[in-house]
């Protein structure tokens, strides 16, 4: 009798067990691939230690130069009074950068340029400014300089003395007169002529002596102007003689406390090209989160044994574009949410730009619409929240300590795959982590170029092999140690 009752009760008990597994924090979840996100880890503690960022670590290991990399917010965020307001401003600036990139792409595609009228390195995150926000420390002319890392730019530059107009930086300005190896570039040189292709602005001749003057403008209104020069550069313990860079005499914009910018684009004037005989045109990075103390690395050189990846590296080819050869393009062939591949006829029909300086990934409207619909289906039951700037899929998680987040994977030509880390799925729009938005946005038009941005590249080893024209992905929990 007892056995019979147990058999009768078993189906109902099993149903109750299944229901209890599905019900979590009062929200019914669909089955699928998910990762746990602990929200308290993303509450902003607002502790900064800029001193640790001004002398970031570096080392040489198995022929590779490794520089510590950090986010700029952690280093230079101490002066911010209203972080919630800044979180919105960051997205506005990011949108301006995207618009600028789209304009640069169109100008280069139609051959337009503008005339100027007037090893492993520690990698860190800088939160104060929403664009161009990962920094490393190098040594130029014998002086340490903290610079922003940007794969969407080519010219490396720093602020120089005497400066007509400079933004505030944490380190002393670079002083050319204090460097015995500093020399300006002549305006009639091939190096000066390469500016037009690398920056979109032609170099012009200065007076007495006829030096090569440059200007670089960024989408958020920031710019740098000055003279083209070369000096001795040290990347960790790796020396680079006669390195060409911009000595900025007139600079304005949202560069935080950094001394300048490192251009990792593909033109002849970029750091990648200038060091190709040393590192073989090979570099990679692991971008850390904005959490206090988080750091990643910029590895110059192709020895993969120095990586700390937890998955196999998968490679895709760089899509060639003669008119836009300074950028890095790849072919997005699919996207999956929670293990479910999205159906969309536009996959594989247009190259995507991968960029370390853009924050939020931009997708063609048709792909974004499909991704949003599937994500909301799998993340159902959570209270919705108002749109936040360019982000339109937002949730109020104030009642939760942790949530299960559907996985997002991006597939590329050649069966390469990038599994977006759980920290790169949501953009936190409140400092207490109570409100989040899906950290992806739609382009305005189908024919615009999509962008794989740095938020989705967190905790990934992203590998650039410019000689073999391929790009690789592998999961790696970013750490410089």
TrEMBL record:
* Signal peptide (residue range): 1-20
GO biological process terms, semicolon-separated: proteolysis
- Active-site residues are 150, 355
Instruction: Cite the Peptidase A1 domain residue spans from the record.
Output: 134-474
A single GO molecular-function term is: aspartic-type endopeptidase activity
Q: Which residues form a coiled coil?
A: none
Task: List the Pfam families hit by this protein, alphabetically.
Answer: TAXi_C (PF14541), TAXi_N (PF14543)
- Which domain of life, per UniProt? Eukaryota
PROSITE patterns from the UniProt entry: ASP_PROTEASE, PEPTIDASE_A1
Q: Which Gene3D superfamilies match?
A: Acid Proteases
UniProt-listed CDD domains? cnd41_like
Q: Which UniProt keywords apply?
A: Hydrolase, Protease, Signal
Tell me if Transmembrane helix is a UniProt keyword of this record: no
Quote the InterPro entries the UniProt record gives. Answer: Aspartic_peptidase_A1, Aspartic_peptidase_AS, CND41-like, PEPTIDASE_A1, Peptidase_aspartic_dom_sf, TAXi_C, TAXi_N
**The keyword Hydrolase appears for this protein:** yes
Q: Which family does it belong to?
A: Belongs to the peptidase A1 family.
- This protein is called what? Aspartyl protease family protein At5g10770
